[in-house]
Amino acid sequence: MKQKLKNQKGATGADVLVALGVILVAITIVSTLYVNTVLVSRSVVRASGATRIATNIVENINSMLYRNFKTVLGNLDSEQISDVKKLYTCEGGPAANIFNTKVPKGYKVEILVEDIFSNPNPHFDIAKEVQITVTYKVSSNEKNVSLSLCKQLEMCEAANEPDLSIIPLAEGQSYLPIMNVNEVANSTKPGSGWYDYSNRVWARVLVDTTQNIDNIKNGTVELANIMNSSKVYYWIPRFSENVALYKTTNYPIILTTAAVGSNTIQYFTVGETAVSTVDSEFDLKKGIWVKQDELTTNSLSSMFLSTQYGPNAL
Question: Which residue among 131, 152, 173 closes a domain?
Fold first, then answer.
């Protein structure tokens, strides 16, 4: 039986063309996948950068005073869109910075600000809708990230509200707020009415063992039987001389009176000129808690007693 010998002449021209075609198709597919991967990766990086810029701007706007927010806006390039809308723009670059946020080259920040109240009376300038849009390009496609917030004028109380988280509690102790009529609240989170610094009524808490506090809450122990001056703490809000200070800043809380038509409105807001605190003991706190029997010996509370906020009776 004869065997057929294979052709030993090597690859033909047709074989080479077919091989080249397969190689070219493979290269095209791999190149396309590589380009798409690069574009997707670049898009993710650029989107992440835009999100970081927008988020940082939102956080910085939220942390600043309302008037400082308006001051920064006044230093930006702007375009009047309508009677109540303005568009502020910042092009990215080596020195580009907006609301303490660097804007790299290739990004553009647009901030659309709308007055919520269109009344021309400046006392109605108390809130603005803010939309932050960060635009960037991936290849030739333009994309953006957008965040929004409402920036409001600081409407505050006559003094910083009591910070219950810094009550000086020893192990095994708890507290209850003392109401104006020498009754304790039935929880550690009271509603309104247990203090009013504008009317010289200070916030007070009773600090005692957890067992005694529980007994008071369930009515098995009378408040008068366990309350004494060493167990009562008063809230001394951050202040300077005769003015209370806003949160942990050195800006005073002031009472503003505004004429609205034939009516007059009053509200507490933040003054424009910073002052010094009366003592470094406040540090970065909104206030301190002082025992009742130490009110006249503690330097801060004794000074606070002589201010316009000094209580009618302790």
Answer: 152
Give 7's DSSP letter. P
> Can you give the pTM of this predicted structure?
0.65
Tell me the two tokens of residue 313.
Answer: 């009776």
In order of 78, 97, 102, 200, 308, the CA distances from 94 in angstroms are 21, 9, 8, 53, 51
Cβ atoms 156, 246 nearer than 8 A: yes
Query: H or E segment at 138?
Result: strand 127-138
Do the beta carbons of residue 198 and residue 307 sit within 8 Å?
A: no
Strand, coil or helix: 265? strand
- Asked if 175 and 287 sit in the same domain, the reply is yes
Question: For 76-115, what is each residue's pLDDT tens digit?
Answer: 888 998 888 999 999 999 889 999 999 999 899 999 999 8
Domain membership of residue 142 (yes or no) is yes
**Pairing outcome for strands 141-152 and 127-138:** antiparallel
- Which alpha helices (H) appear in the chain, and where do they start and end? 13-63, 66-74, 210-217, 223-226, 299-305
